[in-house]
Amino acid sequence: MKLKFAIGMATILFGIVFSFSLKAVSAEVEGSVANPDMVLIPGGTFTRGSTEKDIQWVAEKFFSATLEWYRDETPAHEVDLKAYYIDRYEVTNVEFLKFREAVPGRNPKFMDNPRFNKLRHPIVGIAWQEAVDYCRWAEKRLPTEAEWEKAARGTDARHYPWGNEPDKTKSNVRGLQDENRYTAPIGDYEEGKSPFGVHDMAGNVWEWTSDWYQPYAGNKQENNLYGTSLKVIKGGSWHSNMDLARSAIRGKAIPYQPQNYIGFRCARDS
Hints:
Layout: H1 2-32, E1 38-41, E2 44-48, H2 52-61, E3 77-81, E4 84-87, H3 93-102, H4 128-137, H5 145-153, E5 206-212, E6 231-234, E7 251-253, E8 262-263, E9 267-269
Parallel strand pairs: 5-8
Antiparallel strand pairs: 1-4, 2-3, 4-9, 5-6, 6-7
């Protein structure tokens, strides 16, 4: 009897410990895996920027009068990144309003404008620091320029998230004349998602990154805008043509001036 009782108690204790262990493991896993609205971008190298051949292609494809606009994308180079998470979608008006309820501050510049204030549309009219503050509140951060570009184009140096050819039906850009004259609901262009499954990385809204607008190593293009006065924005917008919706394009913006074509998404270390 004593032996049976001891075995029974041991079994019960093991079951309790095992149950708590499973709960602990589940909690750890749940806390370490991004929520469904984030995508894990695996570590490794990718090609950032454009070759001279790439910008020649852009000039011919879009009848550009000069190559100077695109030469800040050169030279193309390999970047090795650790794994990280990035938001599957751009931060929306409804998400930013939740932030403002928790952290009172200035209402976004275009929140009372029916062209831009629909709840499932990306937030615009946000200065760079406000985007940083939101990401910190959400326990995330802004992506670096390199992180953003890898998430958009993958590892095969494609021009657009979906491939190498411009396609206005796969992104919210100027000129399509569809129902989305300004911003579009997030995820509205399913066929335009990136190789990693990240949406709206071409068109809809330009997106803030954490980086200053500086030349790439080896870049020989003289540019008096390089420095620490402009932040890099990526992806083009509803107001852009397809040449500016390429993944390699390097937009730049004054960080304290909100615009109706600039929004953001967040990233997080893995």
